[in-house]
Design brief:
This is Cation/H+ exchanger transmembrane domain-containing protein. By secondary structure, the protein is an all-alpha fold. The chain has helices at residues 2-10, 14-25, 41-66, 71-74, 76-101, 107-117, 122-129, 132-137, 140-155, 157-169, 173-213, 218-238, 243-254, 259-263, 269-288, 303-316, 319-325, 335-343, 349-360, 372-422, 438-443, 453-458, 481-497, 510-523, 547-553; strands at 447-449, 464-466, 471-472. 66% of the residues lie in helices and 1% in strands.
Length: 566
């Protein structure tokens, strides 16, 4: 219950919690769970590769299914700009930083390491962008394009990795480029996309035919969710094609006409599957992290170099490119959304998968490494693991820190306004109330009191009517002020997004005000001066006051109630 409450209140997702639990259970803490001890080193690498493959492909398939109908075709321009030039820019920038910081690594090897850090991780991105905070504060079009971009660039990491490996392993650059074009692009990327699209469309037609004939029910749709994802990556990986891109293409194709989404609407089974796989995967990552290898001076790896690398990646990998290109991305409206999109480019499961795939194609390193291929094999996963750990902490905790900052700011504003109201000379019966901030006063129409004067003088809470039909009550204290202010800010933001027409109020002429006050004095004479207040009343309970004192303070006061939250 405590973990659920922390996750709900602070918006901490399963990525951070799972990784932290894995570190605690791993060989560097409790030593209960150690993935690197499962058989030989090659067997351990193989297990890591397949675990990351299944979780990543399932997540990519889920993103493709959850996208709106024909989303990739309707938003192809923005996605192409966010994927191709942004990935290429980040690839070259990260490679240059690695080449400068780590002396034993040449530029070609730096390109191979940078290729592992280029794609945006769809698992972390989905956990962040799909959270309650993002749903409340991030526009839907931006959330969708970030999810689609994170899925597409994960599959397109293969060409960036393959050109680096071919240049490292092949003796001739011409042969390396030829293999890159034929194998890296045509066989892996293009064929993988075609396989995934064909399987998704074929499965969609088959499942619609079965539905028309009554061969399948609603529950069977959800059971096919995981089966098709596993089958797609099995076929693509068996023939050596891009299985990640195939899974994303299959998910997008099966939901292209919206039939699958309609049948699985409001079903939580697929979300439960994703959550279980994600939690298990990040527990595995937490136990897999090689903390002792983060300090390997013989390979040129030291903690301060890794920290500088991570900070530079956060600042330069995506943000500059998106700030330059966002004008051509219709889904991004201004530089703030471009900065947000550039910041939320986490690295996680995809980076570990690509790095493990690269190590499986490199020779086993000696101690010390004999050539550049062995240097790359010895340093690649260590650098990638540190960047992944930093990305999980920074990107996973960005929203919780922002949420805590907003709460602290709300409490500070509440305390300052309460103190100001206490130090202002006002009638005693107003000391227990809190004035509405000017922003809300301007956002509402003129207020007309429906309370009678004896009710006001006796302190009875009476409703006031606002022209936009919002009921407001008198408050006797400033309790729950922080939540009240936070609610007001949300209402103000909602009004700015969809402003309602309103009429400007005009001040009451002095003559009419004098006549109205004269009528009120005749109807409600001042209380008898000999009347004594009840001794049982506390100082916070309002005491009788003359009509003049009430008239001087009643018009500019707007009083709120924690029950109505308005």
């Amino acid at each position: 219950m405590g973990i659920v409450r922390v996750r709900k209140q602070l918006y901490i997702n399963e990525v951070v919690l799972g990784t932290g639990f894995g570190v605690l259970m791993g060989p560097h803490a409790a030593n209960i769970f150690d993935p690197r001890s499962w058989g030989s080193e090659e067997m351990s690498q193989r297990i890591t590769l397949e675990v990351m493959r299944v979780v990543l492909a399932t997540g990519l398939f889920a993103i493709g299914v959850e996208l709106p109908n024909s989303y990739l075709a309707d938003h192809a321009k923005g996605l192409l700009i966010m994927v191709v030039p942004t990935m290429a820019f980040g690839w070259l920038i990260v490679a240059a930083i690695i080449y400068v910081l780590f002396i034993p690594i040449n530029f070609i090897s730096s390109l191979a390491i940078a290729a592992c850090l280029t794609p945006t991780d769809p698992i972390i991105c989905a956990a962040i962008v799909g959270g309650r905070f993002a749903i409340k504060h991030v526009p839907k079009n931006l959330r969708l394009v970030l999810s689609a971009e994170s899925a597409a660039n994960d599959g397109l990491a293969y060409p960036f990795l393959s050109i680096s490996l071919y240049l490292t392993l092949e003796s001739s650059r011409a042969a390396a480029i030829e293999k890159w074009l034929v194998i890296g692009w045509l066989y892996q990327v293009v064929l993988g996309t075609l396989i995934g699209t064909a399987m998704g469309l074929g499965f969609s037609q088959l499942i619609k035919f079965s539905h028309r004939k009554g061969f399948i029910d609603r529950e069977s749709y959800v059971s096919q969710y995981l089966a098709l994802a596993i089958f797609t990556i099995g076929v693509a990986s068996t023939i050596g094609s891009d299985d990640l891109l195939a899974a994303f293409a299959a998910g997008s194709a099966i939901s292209w006409d919206g039939h699958f989404n309609i049948q699985t609407e409001n079903e939580v089974f697929s979300s439960v599957i994703d959550l279980v796989l994600n939690c298990g995967c990040f527990v595995y990552i937490g136990a897999w992290l090689p903390f002792t290898a983060f300090n390997s001076p013989e390979l040129g790896i030291t903690p301060w170099r890794l920290i500088i690398l991570f900070i530079a990646i956060l600042a330069l990998r995506r943000i500059p490119a998106l700030l330059l290109l966002y004008r051509w991305v219709p889904e991004i409206s201004d530089w703030r959304e471009a900065f947000f999109s550039g910041h939320f480019g986490p690295m996680g499961v995809g980076a570990i998968f690509v790095s493990t795939l690269a190590v499986s194609r490199l020779p086993k390193p000696h101690d010390p490494p004999q050539n550049q291929q062995e240097v790359l094999a010895a340093t690649l996963q260590t650098i990638v693991a540190f960047v992944v750990l930093g990305s999980i902490l920074i990107h996973g905790l960005s929203i919780p820190f922002f949420s805590v900052g907003r709460r602290i700011h709300s409490r500070t504003v509440s305390m300052s306004r309460t103190w100001t109201s206490r130090t202002t000379v006002v009638p005693d019966w107003l000391l227990g109330t809190r004035r509405v901030p000017e922003a809300m006063t301007e956002a509402t129409a003129s207020i007309h009191s429906s309370a009678t004067l004896p009710d006001v003088e006796s302190g009875l809470p009476q409703a006031t009517t606002i022209e936009n039909n919002v009921n407001v009550h008198h408050l006797r204290s400033a309790t729950d002020a922080g939540d009240l202010i936070e609610r007001r800010e949300d209402m103000t933001a909602e009004r700015r997004r969809s402003p309602a027409p309103r009429e400007a109020s005009t001040p009451e002429p002095p003559a009419e005000r004098a006549n109205r006050m004269s009528g009120l004095r005749r109807r409600f004479p001042s209380p008898d001066a000999t009347r004594q207040p009840s001794p049982a009343r506390s100082e916070n309970v309002c005491r009788p006051r003359s009509l003049d004192s009430v008239a001087n303070y009643l018009p500019p006061v707007t009083l709120l109630c924690p029950e109505c939250r308005s």
